[in-house]
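User: Good morning. I'm curious how zinc ion would be positioned relative to this chain. Could you predict the structure with it bound?
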Amino acid sequence: METLAPNVYKVVIGDKFNNVHLITGSDGAVFFDSGHDTQESHDVVTSMWDTVGRPLIRAIVVSHWHEDHSGGARKLSDLTGAPLFSGPRDKPGIEYKLPGTIIGHVPLDGERLNLGGLTLIFIHTPGHTHGSLSVLYEEEGILFTGDFMRTTKPFSMDPTHGAMSAQRESLKKIQQYDIRMITPGHGPPVDDAKLFISSELQSTVGRNW
Ligand SMILES: [Zn+2]
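Assistant: Good morning! Here's the predicted structure, ligand included:
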């Protein structure tokens, strides 16, 4: 387990190097993504929860419907009793991919959750998929992105899953927020967030997929 910042923990899972994050406040904690639907992945995520003292889990955010991000959600929800959160257009895909998975809440764009001493803002960031959801830890300026941005390889998208025009709009929207660090779904965090976002925007120019 890695500590990225005060109250922000991360484990890396499986051969796709998925990052699973846990953000803890004095009034509960939130998982951002949940890894794969395998026992090994589940054990790693559970041990992170154990290490920080099993705080009450207020939400498990599923950044998007791809299996390496959504696969472990149901088991983690069963274990912690926490509801699953997703973006509006990925809710059906997540529930379809893994029968028995129920998205309990679809946050509005800009909706906030106070964990006691820290605030999470849910931001709709469609592009990689139509319902991709990011979260900003407001006080520290840390953005959790799933595959909206990643650092192991350049942004990619299957045009049957998302849209480059939406990706551009999401990147422009995210520039309005005060972001100091990006921690993606795959790869190490980015410290120069503003530069990274503008280079991501630049890389979409002239691309339709
Ligand atoms: Zn993905």
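Residues 39-51 form the longest helix (13 residues). The domain at 2-203 is CATH 3.60.15.10 (Metallo-beta-lactamase; Chain A).
Let me know if you'd like a different ligand tried.
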